[in-house]
Structure formats: structure tokens, C-alpha cells
Amino acid sequence: MAQKPSIPKGTRDFSPQEMSRRNYIFDTIKQVFRLYGYRQIETPAMENLSTLMGKYGEEGDKLLFKILNSGDFLKGVDDADIADRNLVKLTNKMCEKGLRYDLTVPFARFVVQYRGQLQMPFKRYQIQPVWRADRPQKGRYREFYQCDADVVGSDSLLNEIELLSMIDMVFKRLRVRVAIKVNNRKVLTGIAEMIGEADKIVDITVAIDKIDKIGIDNVNEELRSKGLTEEAIEKLRPLLEMKGSNAEKLDTLAGLLAGSETGMKGVEELRTVIDGIDSLGHDCEVELDVSLARGLNYYTGTIIEVKALDVQIGSITGGGRYDNLTGVFGMPGLSGVGISFGADRIYDVLNQLELYPESVSQSVKVLFVNFGDKEAVESMRIVKLLREQGVSAELYPDAAKMKKQMGYADSEGIPYVALIGESELESGTVNLKDMVSGTQEQLTPEALVARLKD
Amino acid sequence: MAQKPSIPKGTRDFSPQEMSRRNYIFDTIKQVFRLYGYRQIETPAMENLSTLMGKYGEEGDKLLFKILNSGDFLKGVDDADIADRNLVKLTNKMCEKGLRYDLTVPFARFVVQYRGQLQMPFKRYQIQPVWRADRPQKGRYREFYQCDADVVGSDSLLNEIELLSMIDMVFKRLRVRVAIKVNNRKVLTGIAEMIGEADKIVDITVAIDKIDKIGIDNVNEELRSKGLTEEAIEKLRPLLEMKGSNAEKLDTLAGLLAGSETGMKGVEELRTVIDGIDSLGHDCEVELDVSLARGLNYYTGTIIEVKALDVQIGSITGGGRYDNLTGVFGMPGLSGVGISFGADRIYDVLNQLELYPESVSQSVKVLFVNFGDKEAVESMRIVKLLREQGVSAELYPDAAKMKKQMGYADSEGIPYVALIGESELESGTVNLKDMVSGTQEQLTPEALVARLKD
Fold it and tell me: How many structural domains is chain B composed of?
């Protein structure tokens, strides 16, 4: 029953080299999350469908991977259901569980489920895969990781400032140059009010969110098609063409939105956040961008988006404040703010720019060549010494031809090869070869350990 | 649409405290895997059902979680299929994918799929969750982690010695006292031959595997019920009652199995492995146990099992050599040997014995109390300094009552609280309170960093 093995489309295997690179990214993000006092949680891959359904819109419901009930999945399904071939109804009866689609809904569920035990403000991070039955295409997978950090239970804008500071530290450590864009949902509301089209806020933000891609003329065309008056479109133009420093933009906005209470609140919030990150002496590029919208119906305050400066790719991190994360689970009024690092895109950026430190491609530090039983025994003794001192080391398990063993060291990127042959056995030494420079040294075991331990 | 949120039975959420403890275990195991030159891979949560089905027996097929095809899952299902209500047939038509059941089959699939690119011997480790539709009960979950390390492409017994050495290092680092039991499938074959019941090897090993639990009399009763002769049972007794050191047991076995070529091969292999680990100077307790069988049909050479000495619990690690891992995927003749650490049981052991180092319960090192806007700005500046020096620190985001902020530090186990009030702002100092001893110090920012950085 031989079969040509493969994996489901849109999923990936990760080789050791890919894992080293991915771990470098995940570890960097984790370390920063921890430095900022975020605590890790994990939730199950499977959630009840009642938790997931209806949270991502109708399209989202279709993109959930559903798990067939175990045992008799036709229990409760009668012939009429089947004859109708009503997929939604049948799914509801045959499947109780689905794979998590993002980390936000499971987090909201978690907060509500354990509300009695959680200390507020609750700062959590979570790094786990999510699954979506999307059509696979370049850069879009059916299984991918999300890296989320959120604070719930605090309205303070200090949280936003911290998140921006955290973004800066992550990308500084990864050596990726980024532009951080910020906006505020209240400013968007104010803009819609100011141009006399408050009821069209969704259409307006959807359209202006595209300005970088399609230009102002096409944006205006779209706004016209949505029924905005020429007057409204003219009023909007100076906002979209706003130039200058953040301080200048804030002053312009404050002037234009003076008539909107909500809008002015948004301007004040933006000012606090931008001043806050500036006063910390971060030299990251934070830019106020009123066209930034990102899932408008979700965010209620600050909106954040990060783009790589040196690679053409979509946003690599995004987030914002939401005021009703847990309402759908019966716990209204809890405010939260969070960001999500797009690990897969960050991985693409680092690959394109080759930004990995050299240590990432290294597996073990030293390979001991196997010359036979007697030599192997002594090699293993020294390998053990090295490992106890924290130096990764291995002995080639078979007394294969020298060329094969050296080829292994080469292909695995092992920087040192140690040889214990007959003469070394006699003299109690080790011959250490530097695979890069090609130099060889004769060392005592103790000197070898000292040499390789850094 | 408020709903009381919950998670599927048999699955778990992990709180920050649980995650710290679990990470301590996973990180320890990972570090050791790396010191020994194992390289990490990851495979997708979903595999094609064609990869998974038939690999775990009929019972296993039922325990696979199957994923409903997205889109029209009834495509290809005709009315007759439905009318029959043949669950297996319907599942085959409605589901192409399933969740991985263990890490071994995906690893075998990986090795075959990438055989052209892999350097042999290939030493991989993999730490990922697996899913089984088992009936949930205490200590048995539907989602749990496996931590596997395997070498394929090398017949050398040095690999077995390395794995034993690795087990020793993991449990030394975790401070868990263990007994490591070893056996060899060839010895079991030899025993069955020697007592004249070669065809009953499965019944024999299943029965004697239970000797620790049910005693020799019940084992013999079971053997009788399986049709073993009294003579065979009498011949088996001295083997099961074998006492003494490993060397003594090996000599006894060599005497008893002298007539079985396979048996003698097994004795030789055991001797090499046991001598090997002894010669490395490991002081772990490795015990030859001829009753050890563990999934006999799978293993073909060495069998390894680890038990905790101070907690009553099943085996916490196990493994062995298999000679035909990849045959089912059309790649015969590849020998491998590996072990699997039972992370969830190890977690239970560490919890029962309270073996976590103090650092595991610590989240951030220092909390800055928030006295208001002006003080918060200065606090954030110093928090930033600390983080840049690798000290995890946070500022309470709201200027809440002192009692509430101190309560937060307390419940999160934060060891230091820093206060910057009006007088500290004036003098440019920080008041640092040690939450354990209660002592307070007035420090410059630089002295504070030096104090908390260790």
C-alpha cells in the first residue's frame, strides 16, 4: 500500500533550517513581550462552533474548518435534512467543533470564562497557529501563526504608547526598518460628521483606506458611486492631501474637526499617544495617517499598522483599541487594546533582506568524526563534557568513510570538526578543525571545552 | 446573543502560570535536544486522511478527528450512500483531512516526502500537539503535546546510548528521579523461541508486560488461557523471576537463550547499550527488564521506558528502535530509533513534587506604581531603560488607588515595586520596595538598573 505522500494544500512542513529562522523571529517577539510584562496563555486548537460562528461575518463562517463529530455523526440528522442537502443545517448537526480562526475570539472567550480569576488589567500574549479554509495562494496559507499581545481592563492610553514602544523594540531587534502608522476611529467618525455624511462612515473609510493603492481620483470616484455629494468629496480632499509633521497634521485636524465632539476626542487621543512615544525618545517613524482604517467595525479608538520600508509587502503588524471585545459572550464594557505580529510576512521580509544573524544557521557547534569503537568511546566521553558545559556536540553514529562524515558536517553547517584517531587516543588529545578557516589544532579535552564554550 | 462560554471536553486552556511551568519543561527538553544535535521540524496540524488512516489500527482510525471538506462536502455523496448511513463510507467522501494523531506518522511521511533533500543520519525533534477522540478522563486529554526525538538512517547502537544519555540529562535538569528500563525485542523473540512458543510471541509479551501490575500468578493464568503449555510456563518462570545486576541478568539470559540466534543478538545489543551508558559515567539507574514490551509490533530492537521514582504514575517517557518506519509510504529498509517525552505526565510529576525553580513563578521583575501623568512619564522613561537592559518591567497603566496597584503586584508575584512620586521627581530618584523583605531603598535610575539587572 505504498503511496506518494503529500500534505493538504495551503499547509506547510518546516525543515530544520526554516525552523531555526522561524524560532529566531518567535523568540525575539516573545522576549520583547516578556520584557513588557505580557503573560503567555494558550487555548485549544478546537473551539466549540458556538464560540466561533457569527464572529467573522458570513464569509468567515464558511472559512472555518469544522470537525466531524466522533462516533455517530448522523445522530440527530433525519432523512429530510439529508434530502434537502442544506449544507449549513447539516453542518450544524454533524459538527460541534471547529479549528480556531484567529486568536482574538478565543482570547475573548478566555477572558469571560475566567473573569473571576483574572487580575485586571490583564496583559496576555499568545503565539499559536490558526486555520482558515481560504483559497491558498502566494503568501496566504490555510495554517499560519499569529502572535498577539493585548491588554484588557484598562482605558489608559499608556497602553497604546507601550504597544508602539514594543513594536519599535521588536523590529529594532529584528533589524527591519519600518514605518508605524497610527490613526483613531474617532477621527474617522469626526471626518464623516464634518463632511455631513455621518451615516456613510463605512463607505468612506473603506474607500479612503485604498488611497495608497488606487490614488485620490479613484477614491473620489468610489465615494461618488456610494452617493457622497460633490460638496462632501470636496470637503474631504484637504484631509486626504494633508502633509507635514504629525504636530502639523494634528493642528490641521483640530481645526477641521472643531465641530465634532467625537472627532476632537480622537485628535486628543492621537496627540497623547504620539507625544507619549516621542517623549520616550524612540527614534521609530510614527506617522499619523487619516486614511488608515483596518477593520473599522471592530476598532473604537487608536488604530495601528506597521509596514516594512525595504520590502514591498502588505502590513506586517496591526492592531488597535476595541471597546466591546467580550460583549458577544455576555460581558460588556471591557475595553482592550492589542497588536498582532504577522509572523509569516515578517519571515518573508527577513528572508528577502537576509537579516538573520549567523548563529541562526548553526545547528551543532562540533561534530566528532567516528573512527571505530575504541575512538568512539573516548569521543563520547568528551562530547558529554561539552554538552554539560552547554556546547552542542555530536558524534557521527557510524564509522563511515571520512568523506561522508565531513560531508555531513558541511551540509549541516557545523563550524568545527573534532578528530580522535589512534594517535590522539595515545596522547589524550583532540584534533580540532575549523571548517571555515581550515586551520587545525591539537588540544587537550579541557582546552577543547574552553575553546568551544563562548 | 450572550452565551456561557466553554471549551470542548478533553481540551484545556493554559493560564499564564501554567504556561510558565509548561515552558520550563518544554524549554529544558528543547535545550537538551539541541545540545545533542537534534534539529527541530514542524508538520501541519492537518494531514491527508490517506496519510493517517490504517496506521493506528481500526480503533485508531475511529479516534482520528476528521475535518469536513470545505465548500460542498456532499459533492460525490449520492442518495444511496446517505440512505445506507454507512458512517465509514460517508466519512471517506465528506472528509479528506484529519488532525494528526501522533508525531511518528507525520515524521515518517516527512522523511519519505523529502528523502532527496535530507542528509542521513537525520536527527530530528518535534514538539507539537496531537489530537485523539478518546474518552476524556483524568490525565487523558483530546489535545496534548508530544516531544519526540528520532534518528533515522543509522543502525548504530551509539544512537541508543545517546538517547539514554539524553533522557538522563533531561530528568537531571528537571530534578526528577527516574528509573530507566531497557529491553530488546529480539530478546523477547528469543524467549518465545526458547520456551517453544514462537508463534505466541504477541500473547506472551502482552501478558508479561503486566507483571508489575498483576503479579506472576495472574500472568501465568493469562498465558494458560492463551494456550501455552505448562512446560512453557515453567520454562518462562526463571526469566520473569530473574534478579541481580544488569551484568548478572545478561549472563543469565545469554545462558538461557543460547539456542536462539535472534535472542543472542538481542542480548549482545543490550550489553552494548548498557555498557555504553555505564562507560559514560552516567549515574542514572538503567535496569534491564525482560517484561518490558511497549507496542511490540512496532519496535524491532531496543525498547526504552522511563518511570518516575517518587510519583505513582505510568511511564513518563518511552521509545525504541523500529526498522520499518517508512515502509508504509513506499520507502522500506530505513532504520530508526527514537524516544517520546510525555510532557503532560512530566508536568503532573513536577506539580506533585513542586520541582519548579522559583524563577518560573515570576512574571515581571518590577512594577512601577502610577501616581499620575507627570510621574508616569518619568516612570516610563526608566521602564524603557530597564527593558533595554533586559529587565522585564511594567508601569501600572492607570493612576488607580495605591492598594489596587500593590494588590496587582502581589497577585502577579512581582518581586519589586518602584515608586516615583513628587519627591522622587524632584530628587531624580526612585524608591524601590522589595516585596519579600519589605525593605525600601532610594536609588538613582542608574543604580536601580544595576540593582535589578542580574
Answer: 2
